[in-house]
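USER:
Working in pairs, take the chain set out below, taking as long as you need, and write a paragraph about the fold.
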Amino acid sequence: MRVRLGLDGTGRSQVSTGVAFLDHMLELFARHGLFDLEVECRGDLHIDDHHSVEDVAITLGQAFAEALGDKAGISRYGEATVPMDEALCRAVVDLSGRFYLVYEVETRRQTIGNFSVELAEHFWRSLAEAVRCNLHIDCLRGRNTHHILEGTFKATARALRRAVERDPRVAGVPSTKGVL
């Protein structure tokens, strides 16, 4: 497993996980978050996709946490609502140092290619726990499972992009406690 992440990037990505739909989601995550992202995972896909999806999420979350450092000068909060054809998805994030996930996304299909759709929630839970952030992801409406999941990845990328942005008015860490 190898992940390289640049938060202040251009959206460039090079992704190879062996799970084609996850590759697609990570590529658009990088593009919409303006993160430079490299991911290489060689998992036990002969069994299933669970470990690869989970390991990518954990490692990506750890890379986010490391890149954020002490979080001095960041905006901390981010929100984005993204339409994807008939689907409308929203993500809200607080880079608080405390893990919590709310995932209100209903889908109709069980798989997309070799990606188990139930792992989308597990991906976000693993990532949010590794980043130590509060993450809410909602699908406000939608029917097509591909569109719904794509909308959640785009919305979350855009919310994280806003949360990690530097705000020149923020002196130090954006918290009354002085730490995040």
Summary: Residues 2-164 form a domain with the Ribosomal Protein S5; domain 2 fold (CATH 3.30.230.40).
